[in-house]
């Protein structure tokens, strides 16, 4: 079990968690709440000057933890795969402009071809982006997604697979995001977190909770403590590897998005100290 | 890849697949459609004499493949766990009366305790039922469930875990059901099917498909060919172990349950020959 959290210096909140707020408002509120970090979703940057937005965040004492998201590499046609690579190169440029050290990848999966083929295309897509990532000083961070997304969102569904892939690519510009929502059920999780840390690939740690019942496969994530995930135990495993990065709260929730976001942010802070 | 299926002698349909039909109607229709087997859900037996129902099925040339379902062993209180064991003993009696050679187990999971604890309680619960199962000549068949059900329906979420558990119990009265819906995403599936067959534990094979998108976590399964599961490849792996049992079509679908069940049964037969 990890030690209790006592302040918000290592708390990072994703812009999508408080989706109703534009990034400027979210940044002011996070900053006023003494939250240390922000992860920026690309949709939050629409119509903004990205470099100025990065400066705005830093001026508010927010560390830019990552840019979400790149990926979606697999596709049935070579043209579509090339377009995906182009979009990932653009995401790397955006991360550099924003001052984000990594782009988190939802790797993708193409119904109509095997998961094995999709995984190959993911690795090929990452390889095609790697030198650009290196020049930009931006890490490509593989986020293994829950097996319920294997059909259309990610063919990388366990930490073991992400470890295999990161080790095969074997680059300082590739990392892995451990998200409790996607991985909590895995009986091999403790071992795979150890392996991930030992090989220098553990780049990000995402928090929320798994509600029973879950009413929507995408947008019914719980606040920490509302569900059944062994959060402190998993954070303990992550920290035992030497990880001292941010604890990123990433909650997609139709329920919370409908509520007052100030109240929601208060609940996040309480749940962070009490249940994470 | 498995050889194409050419007739319906090894097709089994679950009563829940055509839920709007009472079991008597389902049995007549399956029999008239030259379907070889039926798996009976316990709710279909409500108010029936179970022994007579079994005879009725056999008189219609339907092989009774299994009774669904027992399980749900884990619980926070000892009383509730004892009640679960009692219900499983009852399910074994029902299977014996029906003439079903096995009870399929949805093993259960209790939010509020760890998956590790739930798994221990599943194994303990099965152990408590084993001598009764042996006397009845009924097999307890572990069905590993998709990780999206880890929170509240099953703490056994991979075939590797089911294999571990069956091998630990090591009894001729314990088996495993391989359901493509739950297991298709697993990169280790081929190996684990081999292991399962080699150790004599592969007792049942369930078919349907995974739709993208999936609109409901419980009741939006697809007909074979409607989704992205590599059905023929998985059936090939299963048959390579020497398995020659039924291919059981188990589809929970709000969409199909609302349609004409005669038409649906026709579609099942077509999809069985073409896409399974």
Automatic annotation (TrEMBL), chains A, B:
GO terms for molecular function: isomerase activity. Residues 42-267 form the Xylose isomerase-like TIM barrel domain. The keyword Isomerase applies. Keywords: Isomerase. It comes from the Bacteria. It holds the Pfam family AP_endonuc_2. PANTHER family: HYDROXYPYRUVATE ISOMERASE, XYLOSE ISOMERASE. This is Sugar phosphate isomerase/epimerase. It comes from Adhaeribacter arboris.
């Amino acid at each position: 079990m990890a030690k209790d959290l006592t302040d918000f210096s290592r708390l990072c909140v994703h812009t999508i968690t408080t989706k109703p707020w534009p990034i400027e408002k979210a940044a002011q509120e996070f900053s006023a709440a003494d939250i240390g970090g922000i992860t920026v979703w690309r949709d939050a940057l629409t119509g903004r000057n990205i470099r100025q937005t990065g400066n705005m965040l830093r001026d508010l004492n927010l560390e830019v933890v990552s840019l979400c998201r790149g990926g979606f590499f697999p596709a049935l046609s070579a043209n579509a795969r090339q377009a995906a690579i182009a979009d990932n190169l653009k995401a790397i440029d955006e991360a550099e402009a924003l001052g984000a050290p990594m782009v988190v990848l939802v790797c993708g999966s193409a119904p109509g071809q095997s998961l094995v083929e999709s995984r190959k295309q993911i690795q090929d897509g990452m390889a095609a982006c790697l030198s650009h990532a290196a020049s930009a000083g931006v890490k490509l961070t593989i986020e293994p997604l829950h097996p319920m997304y294997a059909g259309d969102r990610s063919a990388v569904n366990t930490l073991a697979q992400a470890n295999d892939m990161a080790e095969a690519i074997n680059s300082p510009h590739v990392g892995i995001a451990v998200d409790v929502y996607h991985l909590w059920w895995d009986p091999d999780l403790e071992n795979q977190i150890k392996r991930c840390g030992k090989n220098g690939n553990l780049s990000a740690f995402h928090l929320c909770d798994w509600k029973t019942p879950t009413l929507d496969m995408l947008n019914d994530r719980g606040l920490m403590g509302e569900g059944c995930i062994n959060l402190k135990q998993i954070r303990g495993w992550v920290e035992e590897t030497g990880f001292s990065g941010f604890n990123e709260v990433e909650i997609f929730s139709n329920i919370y998005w409908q509520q007052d976001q100030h109240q929601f942010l208060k609940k996040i802070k309480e749940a962070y100290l009490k249940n994470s």
